[in-house]
Amino acid sequence: MALTQQEFAFVSGLVRREAAIVLETGKEYLVEARLLPLARRTGTPSVSEFVARAQRERALADQIVDALTTNETSWLRDREPFSAFTDIVLPGLMEQRTPMQKLRVWSAACSSGQEPYGLAMLLEETLKSSRQYEILATDISAEMLERAKNGRYSQLEVNRGLPVPMLVKYFQRAGTEWQVNDALRRNITFQKVNLAAPLPPVQPFDVVFLRNVLIYFDLETKRSVLRRIRSLMRPDGWLFLGAAETTIGIDDGFERVVAGRASAYRPRAATTAPVGAMRKG
Amino acid sequence: MTSPTTDDLQAITEQVWLSYLDPEGINPFLPSEEAPGMPCVIAAVSVTGAWEGHVVMSFSEPASKLAASALMGMEDEEVTRDDIADAVGELVNVIGGNVKSLLPDGSLLSLPHVATIDEGVNKWPAAVEVCHLRGSWQNEPIAISVWTSKSTG
Amino acid sequence: MVIDDSRAMRLILRRIVTQLGFEVHEAGNGREALDLLESMSEPPQVALIDWNMPEMNGLEFVSAVRSQERFRQITLMMVTTESEHGQIVRALAAGAHEYVIKPFTPDAITEKLALLGLVPSGTLS
Ligand SMILES: C[S@@+](CC[C@H](N)C(=O)[O-])C[C@H]1O[C@@H](n2cnc3c(N)ncnc32)[C@H](O)[C@@H]1O
Fold it and tell me: What is the position in ligand 1's atom list of the atom closest to the CA of A139?
């Protein structure tokens, strides 16, 4: 049974308000496909009735927001930004910061946790306990954060872009799944954060990974998200976006720089001072 | 180390289907406790060493054919008997290897055996069933079971 | 090079790597694969290797290849249902570079080849 216009309007308004995600008309089929499993799980006979219930029950509305955000992720499959992180960004930061300063990294749309755990592995391998680091991992989806905190991954998930030396070093078998070691979890804090709303007050970050989430926002939201993130970055910090994303034409406060074979973005004032392996892009 | 359970078989089966037999998630394997009809094609791998037993998959004839054509990306009519034997053998190898990873370390996995029912019934008279998962796929019965021939303790 | 005793599995792997632009040679076990290597004028860039196979298994094949200087350049990637932590460690100790556990989705193979620098990561969806 197809969704009525009103039902679709409720759902698109909801995800727009809650997650700033834009669902144009024509995406009815997507909404139905994603909500059908929820309707079944809650024993509601149809998607329409599920939507009706969600208008009264907050918990179901949250489930709708979860179901309509795309959580697709993998470990380190895009090599370039992660090599730039280990080969250029970290060595630079180690020179610029005193050994006592903790490096602070933010995985700003962490989905089921592959990105923050992947970053923790790279930090372990690169810093070799020469200095401390902390990672803040945030997402809007409570379900994804729960999975991320658990740090348990199926066989299919560990096959996706996780270098096997990292698998054997940082994971243990747990039944049919793999469990992340405590060594990796210990420096990661998980927190529910909606990027499209005012951000919680936190210490500024040296590096921010904001990958594959801006694409879901409209221009105005992109701009405000970037501005808020910039305010939480150290002036010489680094921002990494997904391959299809950019700050150009959206937020002039960032400047694009070439870092190895990747593009990165830095608060504008920082790029006036020359930095070793970095060229303007 | 605990023995594999039906839940484990289900997790493994789901992944095998998503990877090879139903990548789009349109024709999932549907577990059901209904007694399957007479199976026709049986594929098995043995585990030896620290744990001894077998992982067995049984298919109706059409199910085995569907499995082969889905795995190899071929039309039903193109599938030969050899293709079926190869395909169901590989499926039980993949499932068996994943089951083995739940068992005590140091167990070995055999190469797959595939038989049609007339030769295949009760090949392991001394074995007891540890767990099973039965269900249907595109309305054809498939069952997976784990058997042990050595009491574990 | 794709080394697996199942024809169905060789076909699946062949399809994936052909799409990435590789030319594929197939072998049904480690022994056949070694013979094939001997006959090739230029060794392959990468071998995808099953573990449990008749005659010569994948682990023995990896050791045999690693012991020969002229095969240094070949990247060895296990693609197998053997999935205990200890088994993966054994394969790496024998000289395998990467490891994909069966079952796998096609993306898994592509992404591992990208990690190894064998396909540009622009190939990734
Ligand atoms: C496609 S995933 C990207 C995961 C990871 N960064 C990567 O690149 O692989 C997008 C994630 O953004 C999250 N997300 C969507 N809207 C958000 C918002 N307004 N605030 C915070 N997270 C959001 C989703 O829950 C989802 O986990």
Answer: 22
- Best residue in C76, C113, C119, C121 to probe A by mutation, most A CBs within 10 Å? C121
At A118-154, the pLDDT tens digits run: 999 999 999 998 899 999 999 998 889 999 999 999 9
Sequence letter at residue B123: K
Are C33 and C61 contacting, i.e. CB atoms less than 8 angstroms apart?
A: yes
CATH assignment of the domain containing A28: 1.10.155.10
Residue B50 touches partner C, C-beta closer than 8 Å: no
Question: Would residue B130 count as lying in a domain?
Answer: no
Model's pTM, two decimal places? 0.84
In CATH, what number is assigned to the domain containing residue A230? 3.40.50.150
Reduced to 3 states, what is the DSSP secondary structure of residue C40? coil
Cα–Cα distance, C36 to B8 (Å, whole number): 39
- C2-123 under CATH 3.40.50.2000, yes or no: no
- Asked if residue A134 and residue A28 are part of one domain, the reply reads no
Dist CA B12 CA B94 (whole Å): 9
**Do A204 and A223 belong together in one domain?**
yes
Give pLDDT tens digits for A5-31.
889 999 988 888 887 778 888 888 888
A140 plus A31 within the same structural domain:
no
Distance CA A180, CA A150 (A): 8
Residue A226 phi, psi dihedral angles, 5° rounding: -65, -40
Cα separation, C114 vs A162, whole angstroms: 11
Does residue B93 form part of some domain? yes
Query: CB of A20 closer than 6 A to ligand 1?
Result: yes
The whole domain housing A104 covers 79-151+180-280
Provide the shortest C-alpha distance from residue A77 to chain C (in Å): 6
Domain count along chain B = 1
Please tell me whether residue A78 adopts helix, strand or coil conformation.
coil
What is this model's ipTM? 0.92
CB contact under 8 A, A76 and C115: yes
Which structural domain range is residue B106 located in? 6-119
> Coil, strand or helix: which one is A96?
helix
